[in-house]
Specification:
The complex is a heterodimer of chains A (about 300) and B (about 250).
Chain A lengths: L1 H20 L11 E8 L22 H14 L3 E5 L8 H6 L2 H9 L4 E2 L9 H8 L6 E2 L4 E2 L12 E6 L2 E8 L9 H4 L3 E2 L2 H15 L4 E6 L12 H7 L5 E3 L11 E4 L5 E5 L7 E9 L10 E4 L1
Parallel strand pairs in A: 1-2, 2-3, 3-4, 7-9, 9-10, 10-12
Antiparallel strand pairs in A: 1-13, 5-8, 6-7, 11-12
Chain B lengths: L1 H18 L7 E9 L8 H19 L1 E5 L13 H22 L5 E3 L12 E4 H7 L5 E8 H14 L5 E2 L1 E5 L5 E6 L2 E2 L5 E7 H4 L13 E8 H11 L11 E3 L1
Parallel strand pairs in B: 3-10, 7-12
Antiparallel strand pairs in B: 2-4, 3-6, 5-10, 5-11, 7-8, 8-9
Classes of the chains: A alpha/beta (about 300), B alpha+beta (about 250).
Chain lengths: ~300, ~250
């Protein structure tokens, strides 16, 4: 705050000199940073589009179409981050036949930046997941699974900071409780840690230590439940410093993000795009001159 | 040094000056959901990459495993259907040898759920693809050791359900109002003091379809055998499917 005051005073004092002397700087008058976040969840090995005779999703989906769409968006805005909220595996014979190799290779070709893990990503066991890692040229971000006593130890990151156009985007990942959902002989000694506590740790690190401008939570907790199980909606309300929660697991088709209010009274976006690669979620952040999204009020168009 | 610092302040002030007076200081977030449909052209490189995987997969999925002499749909019976009987009998036949080798016990009966029959089987050649359609889920076969009392709870459940849940190894006769008149496991009346080995899916054992009598068995045994793999293995070893309704679960 003091720094800002100082700069403002300085700018007033030096304004006269400034205008004449800065013509060489290529400075756009409508200066505004634009970060695009693209996301999928619960693609469940759907590589081919649904056929024309499909009763629910005729002619929808398909990895090759998704690749085209992502490339088109990247061509327009290179400052794009592509994320997945888990359950990449399981749902078509492609997974049963190739164990996830094709899914990871396609995501690598599409240049996914990161994914978190869903419960079905353990369907071939933690060893099955581990054996496919060489095919993934993107990061697995998982903050609340403790993999110390498993083969996955050291192969996931608790958080990661991506810098696009000088904007620091911190991403962390939350997975669902595996007990009761996945056979324990599949996830072995993976420990599930409390998502709210971990989220508080992660947001503190990302916001305060890493000075992130945007904080994104990749979640496979599920959108919301009628019982008291932790969900994206409950997480949004119980935490602070998260700007966007990209969810999965419940296959919830949101046509626009839900806007929740966090513990500090600030807005949090919660989004999820159903399943099977039928939709691509897109969130565009236009940041002000200090890389902030809420300096002088925030306009959310959903 | 002073010079560098001064130019830094100049740059900062320039930013602030340029940004003031227009709307750029207000941050904005826009969101959009984009449908992936036939309006988007497929990336040819991706299609080319997938092609050999697809070809191999289709060849394997469509290779013939067995012959089905007639169409089977799950609506062809009152309390038992040809396709339900087939599925329950497959579980009995495929899982029992594994269970027996591990525990020295034999499966007494099989219970699946009607909703778990995910497709019919058309007359003609049966392939791996048929097995995926019939059982797309990854459910595993489990064996629950149930008290005779729990078996009676199961019968009450079936009285309320009035549904052709697939069974094998048990004979159930109901009256027209779905009250059980007679129930026998392996030809013998249900003994409340005995325990029975009931094979089912992990989904149902964990409370699926509210089959709560499966939830807390005396003992739970894993077979490590997916339902679909049992079906595929059975199709592989059998030449022509047996496709009959019978009197295992009827109303009189």
């Amino acid at each position: 705050m003091r720094r800002r005051n100082f700069i403002q005073q300085t700018s007033a004092a030096t304004a006269f000199i400034g205008i004449g002397g800065l013509s060489s700087l290529s400075f756009k008058p409508n200066y505004k940073k634009h970060i695009t976040i693209l996301h999928t969840n619960d693609v469940h090995s759907h590589i081919e589009p649904f056929g024309p005779d499909d009763s629910r999703n005729p002619n929808m989906g398909g990895a090759a179409r998704r690749a085209t769409l992502i490339q088109q968006i990247r061509n327009k805005n290179p400052n794009t981050l592509l994320l997945d909220a888990g359950d990449i595996f399981q749902g078509t014979p492609y997974f049963n036949f190739y164990g996830g190799e094709l899914e990871f290779k396609l995501m690598s070709k599409m240049k996914y930046d990161a994914s978190t893990l869903g419960n079905h990503d353990f369907d071939n066991g933690i060893d099955g997941l581990y054996s496919q890692l060489p095919h993934a040229e993107f990061d697995f971000i998982s903050s609340n699974y403790d993999f110390s006593n498993t083969v996955m130890d050291g192969h996931t990151q608790k958080h990661k900071v991506f810098t696009k156009d000088g904007v620091k985007i911190g991403v962390f990942g939350l997975g669902i409780e595996l007990q009761g959902l996945v056979n324990d002989n599949l996830y072995k000694e993976t420990k599930y840690l409390d998502p709210v506590e971990i989220a508080q740790d992660m947001t503190r690190i990302l916001k305060e230590e890493k000075n992130c401008d945007l904080v994104i939570c990749l979640s496979h907790l599920g959108y919301d439940y009628s019982h008291d199980k932790i969900s994206d909606i409950k997480l949004a309300k119980a935490t602070e410093n998260i700007d966007l929660i990209i969810g999965g697991h419940t296959h919830t088709f949101l046509d626009k993000p839900t806007i929740e209010t966090n513990k500090a009274g600030k807005k949090v976006l919660v989004n999820q795009v159903g399943c099977y690669g039928l939709y691509l979620g897109r969130i565009d952040f236009y940041l002000d001159d200090e890389n902030k999204i809420e300096a002088n009020g925030l306009k959310i168009e959903v | 040094m002073r010079k560098i610092r001064l130019s830094f302040y100049l740059l900062l002030s320039a930013i602030i000056l340029s940004c003031k007076g227009n709307s750029v200081e207000t941050a904005e977030i826009k969101a959009q959901r984009i449908a992936i449909d036939e309006n988007i052209e497929a990336d040819p490189e991706i299609e080319e990459f997938v092609a050999p995987f697809k070809e191999h997969l289709n060849k394997t999925l469509d290779s013939t495993l067995a012959y089905n002499p007639k169409d089977m749909v799950k609506s062809d019976g009152d309390l038992n259907t040809a396709i339900g009987n087939l599925m329950a009998d497959i579980v009995m036949e495929q899982a029992n040898p594994i269970f027996k080798s591990r525990t020295a016990n034999e499966i007494d009966m099989v219970l699946l759920n009607y909703g778990g029959i995910r497709s019919g089987l058309n007359k003609g050649n049966i392939s791996t693809r048929s097995a995926y359609a019939l059982m797309p889920f990854e459910n595993e076969i489990v064996v629950t050791e149930l008290s005779g009392e729990k078996i009676n709870e199961m019968l009450s459940y079936l009285e309320r359900a009035k549904t052709a849940h697939p069974v094998s190894g048990i004979q159930i006769e109901m009256d027209q109002n779905y009250n059980v008149n007679r129930a026998e496991i392996k030809g013998k009346k249900i003994d409340e003091d005995k325990t029975y080995f009931v094979a089912t899916s992990d989904y149902l054992q964990q409370g699926g379809d509210n089959m709560n009598f499966l939830k807390d068995p005396v003992e739970l045994y894993k077979v490590d055998y997916k339902l679909r793999n049992a079906i595929i293995d059975y199709f592989k070893k059998i030449d022509t499917l047996k496709v009959e309704k019978d009197n295992r679960f009827i109303r009189k």
